[in-house]
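Sequence in, structure out. Go.
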Amino acid sequence: MCHDAPVIALQTAPDATLAKAVDLARSVVLELADPGDVGEHLGAVAEDDLVVTHQFACTRSGYVGWVWSVTLSRAKRHKQPTVNEVVLLPGADAIVAPPWVPYRERIQPGDLSPGDLLPVEDEDPRLVPTYSYGDDPLDPDAKAQVRQVATELYLGRVRTLSPEGRDLAAERWYSGPGGPESALAKNAPETCATCGFLARLAGPLSELFGVCANGNANDDGRVVSFDHGCGAHSEVKLARKQQPIPIPDHVYDSLTDDEFETL
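Output:
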């Protein structure tokens, strides 16, 4: 049986003429940087048959691990190199900024301060319109009339939670500290489903979640799943050995000083 041999990519050796142009590459860097910011030559890498990149260590303060990169090329049958580009690039050990994450994705619960605003996008999939604006939703007068009628009919909110938004909330709550996998729930004697302090939610979420109404519990005022639990369950009882030891009577009652003086 024949087997195809694996294909091994061989690295092309740098063009000899371009590889020797170290002084030219350094002079190009020195046109952009101070001499004290350019260190030793780190080598030359073949980018193509007649394209070579020279790298120099960057000694500028705050740029540890960065390299000056100069790309040279030449035409066939020509010995004179041409400068393509000069850039400062981070090396493998360079300190670089983390990937940019939009503010909307970085914000976490508790980050908003009084007065901060976090607008919701018009096409946010977590929300759906409560009512329609008719055939011309962009007409401001038509929208104003529809909203006025909606107010008179007590339709309330302009948008409401979509099935996708509801599912996202359920997943977040169930996998969070109010779900069954938290350390508090795993050590609880009973679940929230049998606790008298559980206030049920309305709508589809009422099938799995409620709000804790026990002022002595860690989860007071928070959404908890039915299979969550804690030590403040309404029906929890202490075993005899767990009950506090009764305090014995005083040997001498300090409130009856008169009797003490008569002894």
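Check: The domain at 16-90 is CATH 3.10.450 (Nuclear Transport Factor 2; Chain: A,). The longest helix spans residues 140-152.
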